[in-house]
Specification:
The chain has 466 residues and is α/β, with parallel strands linked by helices. Helices cover 33% and strands 22% of the residues. The termini are far apart.
């Protein structure tokens, strides 16, 4: 449903979920003259804050349906917009599909209406760091009156800034598989960093998860400015090149003949187009871990594909120390360095975090399981983790995956706790000079916290209170 702003007048739109995506979309569409119904499973009392915030804008034509999603909400509805966290298996969504009512979301509506070039990124790991780096490069590359914006799956929903965009602006957009699975419009420049097991509790299997990720490029149309950036080290991402309708760029440890992109040589990052151009030495990267070198290579390839100069790439990377909750240094206490990696919501991300350190590691792992395999992480724990502390809803699953540990082999101790606070206290008892205490859960936060940010902030506070 690709509609101009004026065409929303009088349309009835049902928005499922009253978190930031849902309320931002309600604000925008109500301002376009649409009749909005916001439905959320939470009670009116639980939604008081969201309702008050929208009411403060004096918007008209917004109704609320609290406490569930009754099917009669679909009567006379023109469009249903599930928020990212709302599964498509929900009965009201399945009934909307049966009735032929189209589905959309805030990201789709933004892309349909955006007047400027949009860079869109997705991936199973590293997309927040890479998105942030590309945004920094874009902000350095443009000057007033042009503006560079960033949002989507991180920061603010971009639909909230549509009225501020001009044709010469540049937007950097992070997209999740949840958003992409119902989208049919793609950004001008797109990137799939990698595809590894993630969110299988939502998508069911890797085929469905990969198909959702692939939408970011399969819905592109041929465009002289269009590009697709793929991680050539990751087979699932690289295999998508056959579905691209625009120039395929690559990033990885080695160049790929016949494709422009970024690569490593002689401890330096290079850009290959017609010629090889040095971008920066690896030593200029302040982020820990080999996975972050790949993130920087990805960001540089995406920036180049979008037409940004090499000069802004190094400038954006040199003073960048990472995003909040991603291998974020909290403090030194008890002789140990404490790190917050709450954004690690899949075992593979926890493995990348472990490999970023050579020091003895006290690992805090847990949260809610996403039906992902823990066996590879368990093997790495036995190789690299001195003390393992398991917490949260998935504690029994993880404990079983790690199994028994022979005497005098890693992990030297293993303890299980219900909540994160108790896990922090246990880590404090173990911490000693030269250790790294690493919160890198591998599971989602939804067993105990609203999101990974709230979990990371709680961890920070409890560590600072030690």
């Amino acid at each position: 449903m690709n509609m101009m702003k004026t065409e929303w007048q009088g349309k009835r739109v049902l928005i499922l979920g009253a978190a930031r995506q849902g309320t931002a979309l309600a604000h925008y569409l109500s301002g376009c003259g649409a009749q909005i119904v916001i439905s959320d499973q939470r009670s009116a009392e639980q939604l008081k804050g969201a309702r008050t915030a929208l009411a403060a804008h004096n918007l008209t034509g917004i109704e609320w349906a609290c406490g569930g999603h009754p099917l009669e909400l679909l009567d006379h509805t023109d469009l249903v917009c599930p928020s990212g966290g709302v599964p498509l298996t929900l009965p009201i969504i399945q009934e909307a599909i049966r009735r032929g009512i189209p589905l959309s979301n805030d990201s789709q509506i933004f892309l349909d209406a955006a007047p400027c070039k949009v860079i869109g990124l997705t991936g199973s790991a590293g997309k927040t760091t890479t998105t942030t780096l590309v945004a920094r490069m874009a902000q350095l590359a443009v000057s007033a009156p042009r503006h560079a914006w960033v949002g989507g799956n991180i920061g603010n929903p971009l639909v909230s800034i549509l009225d501020q965009l001009s044709a010469d602006d540049l937007v950097v957009m992070e997209l999740s598989s949840f958003q992409l699975e119902i989208m049919s419009t793609s950004p001008t420049v797109t990137a799939v960093l990698n595809i590894t097991p993630n969110h299988l509790d939502r998508h069911g299997d890797m085929a469905a998860y990969t198909a959702a990720k692939a939408h970011i490029l399969t819905h592109q149309t041929p465009n002289p400015d269009g590009a697709v950036v793929l991680g050539c080290e990751n087979p699932a991402a690289w295999n998508l090149r056959h579905q691209a309708s625009n120039t395929v760029w690559t990033f990885g440890l080695n160049p790929v003949p016949g494709h422009p992109g970024t690569f490593l040589r002689d401890a330096k990052l290079w850009l290959h187009t017609d010629l090889d151009v040095e971008i920066m030495p690896v030593s200029a990267i302040k982020l820990r871990g080999d996975h972050n070198v790949l993130n920087v290579l990805a960001a540089c390839a995406i920036a180049a594909a979008a037409g940004l100069p090499v000069s802004v790439m190094r400038a954006a990377v040199e003073d960048f120390y990472g995003v909040a909750h991603r291998l974020e240094f909290v403090r030194r206490w008890g002789g140990a360095d404490w790190y917050n990696d709450s954004i690690a919501t899949a075992p593979e991300r926890t493995m990348a975090a472990i490999r970023s350190f050579t020091e003895p590691i006290i690992l805090l792992v847990g949260g809610r399981d996403k039906n992902l395999p823990w066996s590879d992480l368990a093997r790495l724990v036995h190789e690299r983790v001195d003390h393992l502390i398991i917490f949260g809803e998935a504690r029994e699953i993880i404990d079983q995956a790690v199994g028994e540990t022979p005497t005098n082999t890693r992990p030297y101790t293993c303890a299980v706790y219900v909540g994160l606070n108790a896990a922090v206290e246990a880590a404090a008892q173990l911490a000693s000079e030269g250790d790294v205490v690493l919160l890198s859960p591998g599971g989602t936060s939804f067993d105990e916290f609203r999101d990974f940010e709230e979990r990371g902030e709680a961890f920070r506070k409890w560590v600072m209170d030690l």
